[in-house]
Design goal:
single chain; 234 residues; Cytidine Deaminase, domain 2; 2 domains; 5-stranded mixed beta sheet; 5 strands
Length: 234
């Protein structure tokens, strides 16, 4: 009887593979996709059931639910699920990182760096899920084409700690003609703080002296953004 139950469990574990081969990846549920990624379940539950438990984990700890929870959950939180060890947890986090990079590459080909909306779209999936504030310096050439971006601050909610000197040393090193700032608000509200406005004005004035214009400062919230240029601060 026990062998029969084990055999049935193994058959259930490979069903997502068969479904994929017959109907394609779009036919799979989120839990079935996770089942293929984690490969095996436990004695008590198959990989699909384990995938469902992972999808519900975010709700249990007050974070995003469903597939989006993978962007927020830490390795330690994933490993709280019985059957998810360190290797599986790392695999799941790599999948979420891969999805963010695919989203960025999708937008990159059509992004206009004179358009706050397209810039926000490009960085939205990269930084809107972060639980700490991250400030990105974006550098463009004379035609507003992307040159490079780099993180100039991470882990602080105090924009006043951003150094204009660091900003322009980086811009000069990369031969930037124009620069932009992009940063997230972990609260989900993109409304600029007093610090956001003050540092923007400081860098804007320095940019005029350095002849490397600050084109915009965009704040990313939860699927929404604000442009300090559109708000009249630049």
């Amino acid at each position: 009887m026990r062998n029969m139950q084990l055999q049935n469990s193994l058959v259930e574990d490979i069903l997502p593979y068969e479904k994929f081969e017959k109907y394609g990846p779009s036919s799979l549920t989120d839990a079935e996709l996770l089942a293929i990624i984690i490969r095996t379940g436990t004695k008590e539950q198959n990989a699909v059931a384990l995938g469902s438990k992972i999808l519900g984990l975010g709700t249990n700890i007050g974070q995003s639910k469903g597939i989006l929870s993978l962007l927020h959950l830490s390795l330690e939180e994933l490993m709280q699920v019985k059957g998810i060890g360190k290797v599986k947890a790392i695999r799941l986090k790599c999948v979420s990182e891969f999805s963010k990079r695919i989203a960025m590459e999708t937008f990159k080909s059509g992004i206009r760096f004179d358009s706050p909306a397209t810039i926000a779209d490009y960085y939205m999936e990269q930084i809107r899920h972060l639980e700490v504030e991250q400030v990105v310096l974006v550098m463009t050439d004379g035609k507003n084409q992307f040159l490079k971006d780099t993180i100039i601050s991470q882990g602080t909610v105090n924009m006043s700690l951003i150094s204009p000197r660091e900003v322009f040393l980086t811009a000069l090193k990369n031969q930037a003609v124009n620069i932009l700032l992009v940063h997230n608000h972990p609260s989900g509200d993109p409304s600029p703080s007093k610090d956001d406005i003050n540092i923007t004005k400081r860098i804007y004035e320095s940019a005029r002296i350095m002849n490397i214009p600050l084109v915009d400062h965009i704040i990313i919230g939860d699927n929404k953004y604000m442009s300090l240029k559109e708000l009249g601060y630049l």
